[in-house]
Amino acid sequence: MDIQKSDFFADHDFADFKKSLDAEMKRLQSKGLGSKKCQAEPLSLNEEEILWEKGLLGDKDPHTLLDTDFISL
Known about the structure:
49% of the residues lie in helices and 0% in strands. It has 73 residues and is mainly alpha-helical.
């Protein structure tokens, strides 16, 4: 087996390892590990208005502009 040309997902030499890895991933997911996606809560309109009023959003300088651009995503 030429290691540099091996395809981990397709090569039959790794079949047992892949089965073990899949089983371990399923076991961990059944315990709630690795299956959660972290997602931030969106800002409310009131929260966004406060950021504008405090000058934390706007185009007055590059940092503030980047923050504003990030919020608009």
